[in-house]
């Protein structure tokens, strides 16, 4: 434990976490003064493992309420500060040092502290959704959790007159990586949300979470209904209202109602002009409408550091990546090549082996007169060999060295059906008069990707 600073209680609720509780708790053992684990009915060795690590284990009946279980952990804690964790949370040594530095400076007892929590997007090993969560707060009698699910401590902290402060501490949350586990949680959450609704029938936060849960369950119309009810119960410009407006607009877009999506975003911006999520949503909409100039403007605003009113996403988050991609795409369509090259490079810093991004970046670099950057890229061994070969072929093709490009592309398309490689090779065949070969490739591309407009357009030119 850390000497000469306030006492810390790590509080956790668990059930059947024997496979991972040790990995979660072990880094904290030298740092905190006590660990309080509330077991709500484990059938495995969770409690035994927690106890062997020095935790105080409290057995509590599960009563369909995460808030109630978490409050049991608060009632059994004795530290000056509460640090809460879930069994599927992880912290590395560097972030643990950041925590120790914060506590060593004696944190403000009139404040609670947020940490950045990263959750991997289902089906991806690299994309993450990131949000700020209050993870550290002073232990006070009146500070208690609320809601059966999506439980919140912030309302109680505000009632106690505590401020919220951000930290540079990051937590990795692994709970949403398994799609089957995630689906089961969605079903459970819907059940608990409807129980909360019977207790708090006019609570906009419950409406918001019902919207999220219905969308997650694939019921877009039901989700839209709950989002609208949430907005109707909130004052104009309320941060939650702005955030829900973004979710509502995104789901109108999914149903094909682009006009209502635009109206929803514009209304939100009339109350919060620097809401970066709203600007990102508008960028996506204008990209769909092929209004490249407006798309570029809104994506640019969504990437401004000052745009932080509604929500906070880390640089590795899925939404931030969408904004970077959309901004680069809009600049490319406007043929503002120097700006596009820089925008694609920002995107590639996060997703270095994203094939479409590599190709778009190389095109923008070549068209802005930066061929030397492409040459340097080709020496980067951290980039996959197939991408480097494809970019090399593109460089030859840009220089009208079609035979050199062809020698690289023909074996490449035999190894992997990379559509950009197929399209480039078809264009080379067409220019050399080998229309049958070009047609065969394009027909293959359309079979594996029926949405490839480029292949369809090239085929139409071959068969006027």
Task: Please provide a written account of the structure.
- The chain is an alpha/beta fold.
- The protein folds into 4 domains: 8-173, Alpha-Beta Complex (Spore Coat Polysaccharide Biosynthesis Protein SpsA, Chain A), CATH 3.90.550.10; 202-321, Alpha Horseshoe (Serine Threonine Protein Phosphatase 5, Tetratricopeptide repeat); 341-383, no CATH class; 392-464, Serine Threonine Protein Phosphatase 5, Tetratricopeptide repeat (Alpha Horseshoe).
- Helix content is 55%, strand content 12%.
- An 8-stranded mixed sheet has the order 3-2-1-4-7-6-8-5, with helices on both faces.
- The relative contact order is 0.05.
Q: Would you list the SSEs in sequence order as H and E?
A: EHEHEHEEHEEHEHHHHHHHHHHHHHHHH
The beta-strand count equals 8
What ranges have pLDDT less than 50 throughout 5 or more consecutive residues? 306-316
Judged by helices, strands and strand pairing, the structural class is alpha/beta
Proportion in β-strands: 5-15%
The percent of residues in helical segments reads: 55-70%
| CATH 2nd-level architecture of the largest domain | Alpha-Beta Complex
Tell me, what is the CATH class of the largest domain?
Alpha Beta
Instruction: Give the overall pLDDT as a whole number.
Output: 90
**Biggest beta sheet summary:** 8 strands, mixed
CATH topology of the largest domain: Spore Coat Polysaccharide Biosynthesis Protein SpsA, Chain A
Helix run count: 21
Strand order of the largest sheet: 3-2-1-4-7-6-8-5
**Distance linking N and C termini:** 77 Å
User: Judging from the principal axes of the Cα atoms, what is the shape?
Assistant: elongated
């Amino acid at each position: 434990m850390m000497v000469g600073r306030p006492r810390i209680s790590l509080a956790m609720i668990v059930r059947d976490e024997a496979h991972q509780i040790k990995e979660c708790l072990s880094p904290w053992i030298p740092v905190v003064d006590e660990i309080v684990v509330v077991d709500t009915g484990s059938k495995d060795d969770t409690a035994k493992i927690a106890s062997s690590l020095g935790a105080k284990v409290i057995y509590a009946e599960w009563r369909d309420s995460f808030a109630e279980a978490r409050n049991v952990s608060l009632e059994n804690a004795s530290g000056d500060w509460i640090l809460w964790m879930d069994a599927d949370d992880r912290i590395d040594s560097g972030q643990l040092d950041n925590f120790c530095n914060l506590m060593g400076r004696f944190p403000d007892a009139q404040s609670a502290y947020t940490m950045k929590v990263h959750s991997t997007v289902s089906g991806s090993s690299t994309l993450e959704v990131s949000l700020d969560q209050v993870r550290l707060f002073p232990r006070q009698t009146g500070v208690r959790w609320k809601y059966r699910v999506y439980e919140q401590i912030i309302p109680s902290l505000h009632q106690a007159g505590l401020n919220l402060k951000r930290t540079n501490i990051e937590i990795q949350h692994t709970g949403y990586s398994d799609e089957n586990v995630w689906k089961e949680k969605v079903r459970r959450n819907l059940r608990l949300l409807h129980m909360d609704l019977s207790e708090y029938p006019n609570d906009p936060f419950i409406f918001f979470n019902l919207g999220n849960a219905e969308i997650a369950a694939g019921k877009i119309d039901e989700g839209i209904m709950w989002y609208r009810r949430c907005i109707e119960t909130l004052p104009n410009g309320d941060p939650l209202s702005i955030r829900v407006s973004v979710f509502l607009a995104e789901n109108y877009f999914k149903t094909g109602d682009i006009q209502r999506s635009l109206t929803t975003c514009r209304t939100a911006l009339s109350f919060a002009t620097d809401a970066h999520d709203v600007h990102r949503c508008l960028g996506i909409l204008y990209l769909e409408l092929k209004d490249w100039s407006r798309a570029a403007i809104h994506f640019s605003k969504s990437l401004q550091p000052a745009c932080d009113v509604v929500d906070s996403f880390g640089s590795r988050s899925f939404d931030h990546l969408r904004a970077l991609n959309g901004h680069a795409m809009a600049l490319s369509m406007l043929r503002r090549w120097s700006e596009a090259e820089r925008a694609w490079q920002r995107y590639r810093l996060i997703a270095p082996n994203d094939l479409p991004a590599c190709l778009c970046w190389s095109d923008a670099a070549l068209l802005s007169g930066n061929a030397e950057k492409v040459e340097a890229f080709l020496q980067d061994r951290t980039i996959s060999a197939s991408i480097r070969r494809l970019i090399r072929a593109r460089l030859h093709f840009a220089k009208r060295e079609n035979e050199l490009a062809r020698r690289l592309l023909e074996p490449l398309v035999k190894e992997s059906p990379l559509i950009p490689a197929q399209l480039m090779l078809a264009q080379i065949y067409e220019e050399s008069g080998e229309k049958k070969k070009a047609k065969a490739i394009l027909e293959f591309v359309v079979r594996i990707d029926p949405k490839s407009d480029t292949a369809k357009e090239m085929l139409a030119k071959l068969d006027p």
